[in-house]
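Please check this.
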Amino acid sequence: QVQLHESGPNLVKPSQTLSLICTVSGGSITKNGHHWSWVRQPPGKELEWIGGIGYDGSTYYSPSLKSRTSISRDTSKNSLTLQLNSVTPEDTAVYYCAVGIPQIDIWGQGTQVTVSS
């Protein structure tokens, strides 16, 4: 069974870059047909898909966040990385790593990121 674990700073200052790592166990991120997503949920709001990366390295982004988002992978570490630039307090959310695009099959536990000075 694939398991996902998000890690990174819990507090980021406005205008800085939010960087999170998703470590994947129980399955390879390069396995044919697998796609991986980053999703977030701001307090009191619905889930928002940020973007994803495919088994072949292809990347996909939400149009609303594309200009500030970069998703990459490290195949040697079987991990995924999310970078969100120029953050504001509106980027405060629980951030999840997940399996699947667009339907999510497996979720990570999520990590709280707060944007505040």
About this structure: The mean pLDDT is 97.
